[in-house]
Write a structure and sequence with these properties.
- With 244 residues, this protein is an alpha+beta fold.
- 27% of the residues lie in helices and 21% in strands.
- The protein is built from 6 helices and 8 strands.
- The chain has a 4-stranded antiparallel β-sheet, covered by helices on one side. Strands 1-2 form a two-stranded antiparallel ribbon.
- β1 and β2 form a beta hairpin.
- α1 packs antiparallel against α2.
- The radius of gyration is 32 Å and the shape is elongated.
- The chain starts with a helix and ends in an 8-residue tail after the last helix.
Length: 244
């Protein structure tokens, strides 16, 4: 049993007798949290590994991160997901910060599984035009016992969702796209809409396609504009250009 697992077991026994002891012996005490980050104890190997992952991602050196075999090539897989951000001037996050650390309970009946922790991350990207994009995600780390009896190592258990929680599977990508803004409303002094949001249909008449004035007047009546003004615009327009 690892040192961390032994501490957990001891806390469980003592919590029956006195709640305060659980707070002292538990592996994630609040009294020695690092810089106010819950669960981050100074010198705790899991906390050190979580901070190292955050620093590596921010610094573009994910290839040096110790990870599980299931994680694959963390650097290459992360780069593939964020490749679409390069067009907006971003290749690596501006800042990655571990905000808290918590234990992940083992599945029911899974005795003997290695200990796991989950590190919450704040990730910030700076895109073209000094646009800042910040979101929350998390990464799990797994304890790996050292063969020589030294302190256990903590390995990053990477999945695509580490990059962004909405990236659910391989092949999904992050990208910056331009979306048309919703048209605004023109309001009068009382706050009533003068021009509101409504569907717009553009109707045009091409002079070379209609030389007979009556159709122009008919169109003017359908769309509710001055027929004389429309006829004048059609007559003065270039033959192949539509008047609206």
């Amino acid at each position: 049993m690892s040192k961390r697992s032994a501490a957990i077991a001891g806390g469980v026994v003592l919590v029956v007798a006195i709640v305060g002891a659980a707070l002292w012996f538990g592996p994630f005490r609040g009294d020695d949290a690092d810089d106010g980050r819950p669960g981050m104890r100074d010198g705790d190997p899991a906390a050190v590994a979580a901070d190292a992952f955050a620093a590596a991602w921010q610094g573009g050196s994910l290839g040096k991160v110790a990870a599980t075999s299931a994680s694959g090539d963390v650097a290459a897989r992360t780069a593939a997901i964020v490749a679409g951000l390069a067009a907006a001037g971003a290749t690596d996050p501006t800042e990655v910060e571990v905000t808290s650390l918590e234990e992940v309970p083992p599945p029911e009946g899974a005795d003997g599984d290695p200990a796991r922790v989950r590190a919450a991350l704040d990730v910030t990207w700076t895109l073209d035009g000094d646009r800042v994009w910040t979101y929350e995600t998390d990464v799990e780390l797994v304890e790996q016992e050292a063969a020589d009896g030294d302190d256990a190592d903590w390995l990053v258990d990477w999945t695509p969702a580490v990059v962004h929680p909405r990236v659910a599977q391989e092949g999904e990508r992050l990208a910056v796209v331009r979306a048309a803004a919703e048209r605004g409303e023109l309001l009068d002094a009382n706050g009533d809409a003068i021009v509101g949001l409504r569907p717009v249909v553009v109707v045009g008449i091409q002079p070379s396609g209609s030389s007979d004035p009556p159709p122009r007047r008919q169109v003017a009546g359908i769309v509710g504009v001055d027929p004389e003004a429309l006829a004048s615009r059609v007559t003065s327009a270039a033959p192949t250009r539509s008047s609206r």
